[in-house]
Amino acid sequence: MGIKATGHPQGKGFIVRAGSTARAEITEAFKDNNYSKLRTTLLDQGRLVKTTGSDLFMYKEDVLFDSVSAAAAVTLGRASNGRTAWKMVGSNRTFADWKDGPVAGPMFSGATAHFDWVPFFKALGQKLLDFEGPERQLVLLRLLRDANVSISPDENEELSSIDPFTFFSLVLKHRKPERVQELFSFIGQKLEIQETIPAEFHGVPGITGMNAWFFAYRSVRKPEDIPTLWKLAKQAVDGTLQPDTFEQALKILQVGLPKLTQGLFWLNPEVFLPLNNIVVHYLREMGVGGVESVKTLQDYHQVLEQSRNVQKNFPLLSHGAWLEAQKTGRVIQAPDVEPQETVFLAPPGIPLNQILYGPPGTGKTYTVIDEALRIVDPAFAAANEGPEKRRDRKQRFDELLREGQITFVTFHQSFGYEDFIEGLKPEMEDGKLAYRLEDGLFLKAVQKAGGRVGDQSAENTLQAHVLIIDEINRGNISKIFGELITLLEDSKRAGAAEGLVVNLPLSKRQLSVPQSLYVMGTMNTADRSLTQLDAALRRRFTFKAVWPDPTLLPEDQKLDDVSEGTLNLRQFLQVLNERIEERLSRDQMIGHAYLLNVPPTLEQVSAAFRTRILPLLEEYFFEDWTSIREVLGDDQKKDLQDQFIHVTDKGKGRRFTYNEAAFSRLSAFQGLYEVQ
User: Fold this and answer.
1) Higher pLDDT residue, 660 or 497?
2) Mean per-residue pLDDT for 217-232?
3) Across-strand partners of 58?
4) Which of 8, 164, 413, 608 ranks highest by number of CB atoms within 10 Å?
């Protein structure tokens, strides 16, 4: 008896109707799939149950899935492309046919795509293995230079080592197909490659010029880095990777999983698949599990196995991911346009420059993580909303940070132009002091977003990149940003009608800021009022307030170490802040984070209050103890034992001391908000 399931789309999701059946068995590869866990949850909830007299499950009620592929995967017990798995009742039209109109969607049609680059890439990869030795590597570098490929110096020396991945990368950094074809034609002729020179490169992932090397500069490069890459390249061409080589290559500076798998794909596109941001997002939508948590070769093989269930032709799959990403605004360069016409489709409603401001403890850094995900991975952010998914969002943020799509920096008083833009760094060479020009965090962020610095190739794929500046108001803005403050304006970005280019005063290189670079700052208003912030910065940033939210705290918290009574933390914080705002300003209020998730004991609440909140009050009021007593309600408490601060007259003066006993009395905390 076969599976019989019916459903219909609802919003962005898909409903499988009650009475539909599902396969009870699952494939081995599906066991680690996220949708397999969803299936288990439905079984535990009794919404999917075992049927009597058959080996099928049945939906006991309508179930809303977040995507058509999720519905198909749970129903079929395997990774599945829901757009083609679901068919219209009474016809053979797929969901994709219906969704995209009378013409089938472009994902795997390949109607206008050409993959004649595959045999040439494989032949070139095989040929490059003949150039492993140091002298032979110099031949490859000379070949690239003869083809007028720009190769950056290895610090202050000419680059003298190369590997097959970097060779491909230095060609593919040129994103204009005509230029890439010209380079491959020259290389193919010199290396006597017999396969036809490709003219189209559908499905080939590119790379930014400043990220082309698969190894770091010589001063930080390990002796085994380049030999490891050659060893991995041989295995890639052969189609069989070794776990130790794969994992050793992942540890090389300048190499991460997205970049390494792109290199494997270039050398052997029929066996390996790039796990860059575009493909990962697409595979996740197609129901492939574990695609965001690949750490080992075994993890990678499991993703490859599941991906073949989606599409066995990996070049076609890569191209399909690129096409789908163009629909959603995730990719960002059309392959057949001039570099200056490169298009970046920005996520709607998100400013390029914004500052989250508010008192301490309101969750500004917490919020900036979610804002960054909305920019860099909007689909993941939308699918993982709510406090119960916070851990998943933080984990994804950390992954993007490691992959280089997010840059995080904290400003401080000693932070300067040379740290943020560019500067000369001293180093010892042969016993002599020398100075090396080093790009700062901002220039690196520009390059990661696909922007151009100096004579770097402009044929880069623009990619959303978020630069997060924590405590932005603690730095000297004019000193740190210098002349670049103007370039941050939306209208002055590269590609805008009024776009500007500046010459950096130290290196004399030209710089423009791309539309794909987002700058997000956080600002603690207790340190510095918004009105005191640098006027040039205020004009170029939008500001979003993050105020204390007492509603996140419990109203009637039963404390484990107190036999009677409850503590209303919500009202406690609300009354405390009302009194602070009345006497100082809203900028000095206390954030809810100081009392959020505090263990439900009076001891722990008292510790948080004593060590985190009271020191702030002392700082805010400059040890004006009379005002602090008023904020704590001590001046209105009738029982002296409930007053946190005691006052005694000493001749003409007054002395204030903490009443330690009050910190262990529930009535002292209740008295703060119960007094009138």
Assistant:
1) 660
2) 90
3) 21, 49
4) 164
To which residue do tokens 């140091």 refer? 134
CA distance 429 to 275: 39
User: Quick one: angle between helices 257-267 and 243-250, nearest 10?
Assistant: 130
Structure tokens at 538: 């205020």
Residue 196 has which token pair?
A: 């036809």
DSSP string, 298-315: HHHHHHHHHHHHH-S-HH
- Each residue's pLDDT tens digit, 432-484: 887 778 888 999 999 888 887 875 544 456 788 999 999 888 888 888 888 78
- Tens digit of pLDDT for each residue in 479-498? 888 878 888 888 888 877 78
CB 603 within 8 A of CB 666: no
What are the structure tokens assigned to 404, written together? Answer: 């280089």
H or E stretch covering 428: strand 422-429
Q: Give, in order, the Cα–Cα distances in Å from 400 to each of 390, 569, 595, 668.
A: 15, 36, 30, 46
Please measure the distance between the N-terminal and C-terminal CA atoms of the chain and give it in whole angstroms: 73
Burial tier of 273 (Cβ tally within 10 Å: 0-12, 13-18, 19+):
buried
How wide is the angle at C-alpha 451 spanned by C-alphas 151 and 511, nearest 5°? Answer: 85
* Pairwise CA distance, residues 461 & 215, whole Å: 21
> pTM, whole model, 2 decimals?
0.54
Averaged pLDDT for residues 527-543: 69
**Among the listed residues 389, 355, 545, 332, the one whose alpha carbon sits nearest the alpha carbon of residue 467:** 355
- Residues 561-604: tens digit of each pLDDT: 888 889 999 999 999 999 999 999 888 899 999 999 899 999 99
Residue type, 496: A
